[in-house]
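Students often ask why inverse folding is considered easier than folding. One informal answer: many sequences map to the same fold, so there is more than one right answer. In these notes we will look at a single instance of the problem. The structure comes first.
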C-alpha cells in the first residue's frame, strides 16, 4: 500500500509563491506517476500537473502553465509542486495522487491519494 502525505500549503498574497511537497511511503521512481489535483469549494476536483515515473516529462493544466513547475527528488521519495505568481483562483485544497501507468487528467484514474493541503491566495 502506497501512502502519500502533502505539505507546504498556507496563506499567501496574490503574486506570491508556495512549494507543495508530496512525500511517498516508498520508492516510486520508475513505477508510479504522481499527479497534483485541486478542489475549490463547490467545484469538481481538477488536474493541475503530473510527472512521469522517470521524471522526464510533465503535464500542466492550461490555467497554471508558465506559473507552476513539478519535480521529483528520488532520494527523498518526494514530488514538489512549485507554484509562482499565485492568483486568488488558485485557492483550493491540493492533493497528490499516484498511479502505475501514464499521466491522466482524470482523478478517477489514480489509485492512491494524500489527505490534501489547503492553499489560500488572498490579500
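Output (designed amino acids):
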Amino acid at each position: 500500500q502506497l501512502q502519500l502525505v502533502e505539505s507546504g500549503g498556507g496563506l499567501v498574497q496574490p503574486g506570491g509563491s508556495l512549494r507543495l511537497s508530496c512525500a511517498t511511503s516508498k520508492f516510486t521512481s520508475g513505477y508510479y506517476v504522481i499527479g497534483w489535483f485541486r478542489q475549490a469549494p463547490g467545484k469538481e476536483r481538477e488536474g493541475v500537473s503530473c510527472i512521469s515515473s522517470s521524471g522526464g516529462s510533465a503535464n500542466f493544466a492550461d490555467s497554471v502553465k508558465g506559473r507552476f513547475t513539478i519535480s521529483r527528488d528520488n532520494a527523498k521519495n518526494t514530488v514538489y509542486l512549485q507554484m509562482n505568481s499565485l492568483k486568488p483562483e488558485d485557492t483550493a485544497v491540493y492533493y497528490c495522487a499516484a498511479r502505475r501507468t501514464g499521466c491522466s487528467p482524470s482523478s478517477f484514474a489514480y489509485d492512491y491519494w494524500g489527505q490534501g493541503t489547503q492553499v489560500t491566495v488572498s490579500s
